[in-house]
User: Which sequence fits this backbone?
């Protein structure tokens, strides 16, 4: 009789007509029917409040806990991004004399994601995977996507960006910059909005000047203290999870752990934020407080000495021969910090949100353990746990497995391909319609994920996740299979041994 393959994904059933399949013969039996592939409860497997390990680490061995401040001890609401965008936009208009028409642009929440690359000479914002390939469908000039064929043409007929062009150790190449911190979301949106205005109005502009002007405008918001004033004025509006920050720090101190703070923010700002979250005696919890540290230079440059500072911000002139509990220090460098404290190696665990400025040097040069704070993780895990995402992923795996096993380039191959790409796009859009997940392209890890794995022992959505674990807990990375260790695709489970096609023809080749 006639065989009619059926492919089921989620609640949809796809059927191939009998006429199209006449004359086709499969060397190994295909999956004629894929039943519901999701076991009961599979959509609640991941915990958004869990800590995930890239490397084995025992908290029992950790004696000293270090923290960054912004987006580590202090988490901010998304309202801050709109303020940064609007203020930098107005600086462009009023100080850099950009067109008044830019005022119609407002911040677009969810337009950009962290970890994107920006090609300064092409005004191109794009997502790049761990192998330096641009993910097609995720390249934008202004607020509009660039067709895939144009992206490939821009880079000489390839999607690949060479390493020398792409980035140095800190994600800054000769013409391409990677945006790695959460504060960069308004900057990416402003770059895209200004580019959109110039392109829409057919105004010629210099891409390098555009990038530098916007970078300077964003820097002004931070350097001139505008952002600090907004947060200090309404901490309830901007600061999140203050009670959890207090609980984490208090718990660590109660278990005789030493704590220190190294931040680029000024003391007055940190002091007001910590008093809001932890209480007026917050400094009693810390053995060391270092502000305006100038990371990442703090970790690599030996030249800047520590300076003692009083609560009013006045600097002392005396030479620092020891770091005292309860005192405030400005600038300095890690080499003096290590010499004066003796805090070295894996007994120190430092938490930060910026993979380059906070974590990279500490792990690679100094042997500290590192924890990455990735607030986006909570939202992404909740999406992964949805039935819609799980069904989409299962359907993609089934289709990919079938495509690998079909021995002809006929109707069925084309049909399967036509179903695979919309399914991939659906999965991407669940995270972000423009750029998808910050952790993954369609199937590869992103460049952000590659750096996350390289520079952090553990990662989590916020430091409050530590409350879910005993202070002596040991984290073990899951043994995720290498490609040659991976289990067989679902469509191969019942087919017995795979046979090499054309084996009989090859046997005569010597």
Assistant:
């Amino acid at each position: 009789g006639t065989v009619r393959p059926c492919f089921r994904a989620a609640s949809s059933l796809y059927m191939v007509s009998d006429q199209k399949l006449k004359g086709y013969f499969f060397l190994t039996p295909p999956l004629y029917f894929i039943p519901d592939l999701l076991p009961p409860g599979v959509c609640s497997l991941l915990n958004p409040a869990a800590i995930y390990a890239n490397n084995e680490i025992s908290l029992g061995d950790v004696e000293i806990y270090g923290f960054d401040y912004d987006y580590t001890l202090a988490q901010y609401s998304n309202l801050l991004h709109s303020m940064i965008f609007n203020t930098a936009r107005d600086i462009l208009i009023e100080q850099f004399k950009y067109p008044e028409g830019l005022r119609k642009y407002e911040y677009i929440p969810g337009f950009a994601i962290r970890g994107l690359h920006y090609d300064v000479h092409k005004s191109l914002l794009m997502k790049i995977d761990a192998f330096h390939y641009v993910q097609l469908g995720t390249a934008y000039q202004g607020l509009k996507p660039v067709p895939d064929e144009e992206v490939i043409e821009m880079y000489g007929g390839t999607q690949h960006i060479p390493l020398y062009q792409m980035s140095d150790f800190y994600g800054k190449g000769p013409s391409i910059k990677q945006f790695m911190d959460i504060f960069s979301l308004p900057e990416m949106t402003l770059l895209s909005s200004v580019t959109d205005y110039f392109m829409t109005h057919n105004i010629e502009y210099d891409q390098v000047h555009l990038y530098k002007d916007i970078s300077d405008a964003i820097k002004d918001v931070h350097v001139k203290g505008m952002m600090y004033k907004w947060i200090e004025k309404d901490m309830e509006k901007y600061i999140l999870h203050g009670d959890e920050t207090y609980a984490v720090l208090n718990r660590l101190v109660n278990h005789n752990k030493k704590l220190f703070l190294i931040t680029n923010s000024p003391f007055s700002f940190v002091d007001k934020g910590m008093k809001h979250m932890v209480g007026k005696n917050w400094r009693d919890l810390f053995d060391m407080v270092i502000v305006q540290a100038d990371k990442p230079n703090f970790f690599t440059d030996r030249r800047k000495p520590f300076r003692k500072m009083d609560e009013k911000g006045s600097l002392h002139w005396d030479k620092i021969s020891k770091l005292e509990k309860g005192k405030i220090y400005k600038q300095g460098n890690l080499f003096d910090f290590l010499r004066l404290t003796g805090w070295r190696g894996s007994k120190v665990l430092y938490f930060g949100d910026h993979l380059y400025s906070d974590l990279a040097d500490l792990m690679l040069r100094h042997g500290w353990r590192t924890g990455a704070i990735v607030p986006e993780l909570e939202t992404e895990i909740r999406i992964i746990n949805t039935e819609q995402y799980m069904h989409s992923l299962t359907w993609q795996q089934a289709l990919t497995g079938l495509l690998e096993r079909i021995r002809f380039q006929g109707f069925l191959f084309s049909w399967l391909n036509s179903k695979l790409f919309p399914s991939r796009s659906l999965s991407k859009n669940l995270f972000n319609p423009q750029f998808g997940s910050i952790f993954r392209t369609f199937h590869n890890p992103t460049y952000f994920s590659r750096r996350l794995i390289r520079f952090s022992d553990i990662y989590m959505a916020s430091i409050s996740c530590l409350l879910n674990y005993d202070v002596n807990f040991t984290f073990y990375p899951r043994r995720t299979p290498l490609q040659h260790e991976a289990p067989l695709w679902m469509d191969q489970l019942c087919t017995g041994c795979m046979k090499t096609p054309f084996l009989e023809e090859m046997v005569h080749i010597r």
The longest helix spans residues 411-431. The CA atoms of residues 156 and 435 lie 23 Å apart. The first strand starts at residue 6 and ends at 9.
